Amino acid sequence: MLSRLFFFKDLDDHYVILLFGIRLVIKHKSGFKYKQATNFGLNKPERNPKLIVSLTTYPARISTVHKTINTLLQQTVKPDKIILWLAESQFPGKEKDLPSELLRLKDLGLSIEWCEDLKSYKKLIPAIQKYPQDIIVTADDDVYYEKDMLESLYNAYLKDSSNIYVRRAVKLELEDNEIKSISSRKYLYQSNLKPTYLNQIMGGSGCLYPPNSLHSDITNLSQIKSLIPTHDDAYFWGMAVLNKTKIQVIKGFDANLYYVEDTQDVGLIHTNKEGSSGVSLSDAHKRLVATYPEIIDIIKTEKI
User: Fold this and answer.
1) 43 in a domain, yes or no?
2) Do 250 and 152 form a contact (C-beta atoms < 8 A)?
3) Which of these, 9, 14, 162, 288, has the minimum number of CB atoms within 10 Å of its CB?
């Protein structure tokens, strides 16, 4: 009972305080203890299935993405591959267009591969196409990752390989056959560690996809481009539900996110706001359900 009256958490550069039902959020300055990787960061010999970390970036963040990759090269559980997918159309000179800080990481285990410009979908789809029987962990290009990010996801997978695992999710509700999203911070005080269709993936915190955990339309590129071209996490969630794969949060808001400096003025968070060239999360869900009405039926089979 006392925990409902008082709660304190240092969360993403904010002190979050719950006091007698009143929620206070106070911003403060905090930082990630960043250092460059110096040692080879991959597992040898490779596992079967391989554990692959996959991410993408674009010209506006190409000068800072090496900072994220440095943290991925220093994980307590080492991946078998770390792949940065880049669109050939955005870097016509290929590696000649890339900064030296990034290229030096190839000696420590980074692979740079080239693909079609699928916007943020590049962080997952090319990896699934090339490595369909392996474990894919997606990361964003603007985050410093704590050393246990990969370990926490992989250990959860080893215990039960039937779910998708994330460190954060957008909580969803089913109301009158419509999907409604709820602020994740609103549910900060509620533990929700059971796998469910109603956890929508938030890939930025780290997300593990077991082999064959997504519906085959995950690689239907023409549909992606017309249906939800800029809301990859929502589409990935829909493909999980269609495949009857539940999503489990393993840490949720117990884990902080540390953003790389000077990266938050650009990105899909701005594109996907109402009234811009993107679509809102609510609209993304409506488009998914209109295209795949069976999503609602699958969710209803779950005892909520």
Assistant:
1) no
2) yes
3) 162
For 110-121, give one letter per residue: b (16+ CB within 10 A) or e. Answer: bebeebeebbbb
With CA atoms as reference, report the closest residue to 110 among 79, 146, 147, 153: 79
Q: Can you give the residue range of the structural domain that contains 277?
A: 51-300
Q: Identify whether residues 24 and 72 lie together within a single domain.
A: no
Q: What is the mean pLDDT of residues 191-198?
A: 82
Dist CA 304 CA 299 (whole Å): 9
Q: Residue 49 and residue 39: Cα distance in Å, rounded?
A: 24
pLDDT: which is higher, 42 or 192: 42
Contact status, residue 82 vs residue 137, Cβ threshold 8 Å:
no
User: pLDDT tens digits, residue range 96-126?
Assistant: 999 999 999 999 999 999 999 999 999 999 9
- Cα–Cα distance measured from residue 180 to residue 172, given in angstroms and rounded to the nearest whole number: 6
